[in-house]
Amino acid sequence: MKDFRKHLIHKNSNIKKALVLLNDLSSDAILFVVDNQDKLIGAFTDGDVRRGLIAGCSTEEMVVNIIQQNPKFITEKNLDIDKLISFRNDLYRIIPVLDHENKVVDVINFRETFSKLPLDGFIVAGGEGKRLLPLTSETPKPLLPVGEKPIIQYTIERLKYYGIREINIAINYLGEKIVKYFGDGSGMDLNIKYIKESKPLGTIGSLSKVKNLTNDYVLVINSDLLTNIDIEDFFIDFLKNDADMSVVSTAYEVRIPYGIFETKKNTITGLVEKPIYNYLSNAGIYILKREILEEIGDDVFFNATDLIEKMIKKKKKVISYKFPGYWLDIGNMIDYEKAQNDIDNIKLY
Predict the structure, then answer these.
(1) How far apart are CA 282 and CA 305, in angstroms?
(2) In sequence order, what are the residues at sequence separation of 6 or more whose Cβ sits closer than 8 angstroms to the Cβ of residue 132?
(3) pLDDT tens column, 73-84
């Protein structure tokens, strides 16, 4: 992880030291003043230095004498998404993250991260990609290049953009190549762990093997998708509906090129000329409460659709998040070629 401590300064440090640290931070020049236990006391910027010097302070004076008291912050647990959004909309650049003891444990830099969602990421990347042979004979489908990056990297970067740093990847076929490519994720300021399947476990079965979740919610996504989904909006919708599980759905249109009879027994009661039917289809992206994982069988083949059906039977709240944006499931050569042309649709910046 990036060293957030470069933004911290002890309350007894002098202004001269603060100036050196601010200079090193360049465009991210803000310091958070802490005590011996790293508890937040205030914030300190170039503006505070100027005001202090104008008031007659010397560079040897302690920063605590000229800090901004009551700085903005968010808490690590029970994160207030609306509060975070308001900070972002008010053009705050960097916000400290506090634990339950008011200690600074991280910072959010809105230049690099759009949000900080309390989600663990789970990417399903164990499939063989047989419909993409011979491309997948020596390369796992998630590592096939689209533009200048592997397919799965676009998903990983999107998770990071929304502040999801804890990521588990389920691997099987040629999975060691995925491990070699991303490692532990530290090079991307992430914490990536791998779930090695000894046998195919379906689209969500390997999630039962995850024992290191850090949040109360999990985002599950297939590794062969390209999408520009706003994960923050998806999560907010999940919370507002007090759902147990939410499924991203995309519109699927069926055009019948003929007239269709409406019948009752053998009698024609009506005629619909070349009808168009619209359906919602499963997009392979889910958010679920942590406790739902208990419903997934241990080391058994289990698809996300199996979980959906089980949750419905148990009267749990399973909702659909209707997504109108870009979404492509790269399942065959035609999809793969389309992805190369569509890549600009999913860029984060």
Answers:
(1) 9
(2) 141, 144, 330, 332, 333, 336
(3) 999 877 889 999
